[in-house]
């Protein structure tokens, strides 16, 4: 019996997604497969970017469709084709084939029918063969780097000239999407609008000249205020360090006499500590990290510093945080404790050094390591071991878009020897201190550290009664709870018992690949993948990390770092060891040079940019890529989006009453994954 199959084919709207190549299709079902059919309508330009094309194919009854095999004849410029999805209908039947990947010229691609199934639910041998073939091809496309190449760091994709980044992972494909392009454009804009400057350069004053063609960060008007300094600890670029303490840190000598007028009337330091009104920022991790040191051909030595500094803050009677003491080292004999009662230059210098310490820790540990690089093994394990119809692949894929590309770009452009970080940050340079710092951070890290509630509780600031104004906490916990319910709902639909997970050969292979090549099992919350609760915990943490946590530590970089005196990424002088000797010229000599400032502005702008094709957790009009079609799963997704809408409204309501709004964790401004 001959059947008419109507294929509705959606080509991606991305620039360059369409093709002029001849495209043919073979329909494969439970009763066999059709002959190849050329998809070509007369007087019509088929498969243009953003187009939806419909074709009718006549074939013998093929039963339930299992896959579509597309053949791309290729040839010429623009031969590759970016296929979004295909819907096939015939009398009384409907199939959906999501793909969202390239069909390369002079090649074929099998697009599997989109019903989500665990491997034990596969009903036809031909479907199982297609799933296996897909994974064999992916394992060739996504090889792990040799273990020695990532020693001390998470596993990563092996990329070389002979084996480049798969086209499915290429970065955006848009002119302005690449952060290298944004850096170059920002540098050009600064140079275009800057006046011709004399050799005399005062970074504390002349920094404003950088912003004649750019937006001036709002904190530029208040960066020297103690209230602004404290605000950045709870809603700045790195809001994950503040902790409640009830005793002074070891080696930090501080007397009540030094805090005269800084605490509430009649309150001693001991009482403030006991009353949980004192908080600590501590960058001890920098203690043994090599700092930039280089001697040029003329014998002139250049050095940079980011000390293992720490800061005490006090919650005053108006429930506002204020910094009250900063120590730029750990030696009580050599490293004095500075307070607001010291000279204005001493106190400003102490705050600037503290922010430099925070910046180096943030860039390599809080940002690069704990979001970008720990995400990569999960991307790799997923692409290598889960076929398109697997529910976990469907759950994760949209959140992994561009991550491999941006990580490769960061390694080559920022972190590699001779990269931007060598020119810019204190821990860069010949001794690769920033890599040392990243490895040190990874050695102490486990995946559980990326769960916000236990981390915030460990730091003693979970209770709003202890720290009333902590927007990062309040926003991130609502988002965590929504993601956890979403992930748990999807997994619970497929895994009705732990035994179902144990029987899932795809996920067991995923786990083995992850723990053998991506990260050691000690970094993960369980030794074996046997409980659905453990998988829910792991995947919730991963999705929270690549979306919420990355947004928190990334998208304020221009606001935080671009006005360089607020948070320089290197200091050009050693921290002061004596009080009362600094003047304004000394501060100018300490902060980054004009060239270093220019780089910091440009990098901050590039890393804070959103792409034209950005997809957000709460996306206007819904997510562009549909992976699940089952009504029960669409209901779970809709519940997730409903919770995100409520979170967005809560953020807006709080910000309406806030002097400095915190919008970076508003669900409709959080990209689904690490895309920059």
Account of the protein in words:
The chain is α+β, with helices and mostly antiparallel strands and 676 residues long. Among the domains are: 2-114, PLAT/LH2 domain (Lipoxygenase-1), CATH 2.60.60.20; 359-555 and 593-669, Up-down Bundle (Lipoxygenase-1, domain 5), CATH 1.20.245.10. It has 19 helices and 16 strands. The strands form 4 sheets. Strands 2, 3, 4, 6 and 9 form a 5-stranded antiparallel β-sheet that branches. A 5-stranded antiparallel β-sheet has the order 10-11-14-15-16. A hairpin with a 2-residue loop joins strand 7 and strand 8 (93-103). Helix 6 crosses helix 8, helix 6 crosses helix 14 (505-518) and helix 6 packs across helix 15. The radius of gyration is 28 Å and the shape is elongated.
Key terms for this structure?
alpha+beta, Lipoxygenase-1, domain 5, 5-stranded antiparallel β-sheet
Integer-rounded radius of gyration: 28 Å
> Which shape, going by the Cα principal axes?
elongated
* Major β-sheet profile: 5 strands, antiparallel
Q: Approximately how much helix is present in the residues?
A: 25-40%
Looking at CATH, the homologous superfamily of the domain at 359-555 and 593-669 is: Lipoxygenase-1, Domain 5
The number of distinct helices, counting runs of at least 4 residues, comes to: 19
Instruction: Report the average pLDDT across residues.
Output: 94
CATH class category label of the domain at 359-555 and 593-669 = Mainly Alpha
- Based on secondary structure, the structural category is alpha+beta
CATH topology term of the domain at 359-555 and 593-669: Lipoxygenase-1, domain 5
CATH architecture level-2 label of the domain at 359-555 and 593-669: Up-down Bundle
Number of beta-strand segments: 16
């Amino acid at each position: 019996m001959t059947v008419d199959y109507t294929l509705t084919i959606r080509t991606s709207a991305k620039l360059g997604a369409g093709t002029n190549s001849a495209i043919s299709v073979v329909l494969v079902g439970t009763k066999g497969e059709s002959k190849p059919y050329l998809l070509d309508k007369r007087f019509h330009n088929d498969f243009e970017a953003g187009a939806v094309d419909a074709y009718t194919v006549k074939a013998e009854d093929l039963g339930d469709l299992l896959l579509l095999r597309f053949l791309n004849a290729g040839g010429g410029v623009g031969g590759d084709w970016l296929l979004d999805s295909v819907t096939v209908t015939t009398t009384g039947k409907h199939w959906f084939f999501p793909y969202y990947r390239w069909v390369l010229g002079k090649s074929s691609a099998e697009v599997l029918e989109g019903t989500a199934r665990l491997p034990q639910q596969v009903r036809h041998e031909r479907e199982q063969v297609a799933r296996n073939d897909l994974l064999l091809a992916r394992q060739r496309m996504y090889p792990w780097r040799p273990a020695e190449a990532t020693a001390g760091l998470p596993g990563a994709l092996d990329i070389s000239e002979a084996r480049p980044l798969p086209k499915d992972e290429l970065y955006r494909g848009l002119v302005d999407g690449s952060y290298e392009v944004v850096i170059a454009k920002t540098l050009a804009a600064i140079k275009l609008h800057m006046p011709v400057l004399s050799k005399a350069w005062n970074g504390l004053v002349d920094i404003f000249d950088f912003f004649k063609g750019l937006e001036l960060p709002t904190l530029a008007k208040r960066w020297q205020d103690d209230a602004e300094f404290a605000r950045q600890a709870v809603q700045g670029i790195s809001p994950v360090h503040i902790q409640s303490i009830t005793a002074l840190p070891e080696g930090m000598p501080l007397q009540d006499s030094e805090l005269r007028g800084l605490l509430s009337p009649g309150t001693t330091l001991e009482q403030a500590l006991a009353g949980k009104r004192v908080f600590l920022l501590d960058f001890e991790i920098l203690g043994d990290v090599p700092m930039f040191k280089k001697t040029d051909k003329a014998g002139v030595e250049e050095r940079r510093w980011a000390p293992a500094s720490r800061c005490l803050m006090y919650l005053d009677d108006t429930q506002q945080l204020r910094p009250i003491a900063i120590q730029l080292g750990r030696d009580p004999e050599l490293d004095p404790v500075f307070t607001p009662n010291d000279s204005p230059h001493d106190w400003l210098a102490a705050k600037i050094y503290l922010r430099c310490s925070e910046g180096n820790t943030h860039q390599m540990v809080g940002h690069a390591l704990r979001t970008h690089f720990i995400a990569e093994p999960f991307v790799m394990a997923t692409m290598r071991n889960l076929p398109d119809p697997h529910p976990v692949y469907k759950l994760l894929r949209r959140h992994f878009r561009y991550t491999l590309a941006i990580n490769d770009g960061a390694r080559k452009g920022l972190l590699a020897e001779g990269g931007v970080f060598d020119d810019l940050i204190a821990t860069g340079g010949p001794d690769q201190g920033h890599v040392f710092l990243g490895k040190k951070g990874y050695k102490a890290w486990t995946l559980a550290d990326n769960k916000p509630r236990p981390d915030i509780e460990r730091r003693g600031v979970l209770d709003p009664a202890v720290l009333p104004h902590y927007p990062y906490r309040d926003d991130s916990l609502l988002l965590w709870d929504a993601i956890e319910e979403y992930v748990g709902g999807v997994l619970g639909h497929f895994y009705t018992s732990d035994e179902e997970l144990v029987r899932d050969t795809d996920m067991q292979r995923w786990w083995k690949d992850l723990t053998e090549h991506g990260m050691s099992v000690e970094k993960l919350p369980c030794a074996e993948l046997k409980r659905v609760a453990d998988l829910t915990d792991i995947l919730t943490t991963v999705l929270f990390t690549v979306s919420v946590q990355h947004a928190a530590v990334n998208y304020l970089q221009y606001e935080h770092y671009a006005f360089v005196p607020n948070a320089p990424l290197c200091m050009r002088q050693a921290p002061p060891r004596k009080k009362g000797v600094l003047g304004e010229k000394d501060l100018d000599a300490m902060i980054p040079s004009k060239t270093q400032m220019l780089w910091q502005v440009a990098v901050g702008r590039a890393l804070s940019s959103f792409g034209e094709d950005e997809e957000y957790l709460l996306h206007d009009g819904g997510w562009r890529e549909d992976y699940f079609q089952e009504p029960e799963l669409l209901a779970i997704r809709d519940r997730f989006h409903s919770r995100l809408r409520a979170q967005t409204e809560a953020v807006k309501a709080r910000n309406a009453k806030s002097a400095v709004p915190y919008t970076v964790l508003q669900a409709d401004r959080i990209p689904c994954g690490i895309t920059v």
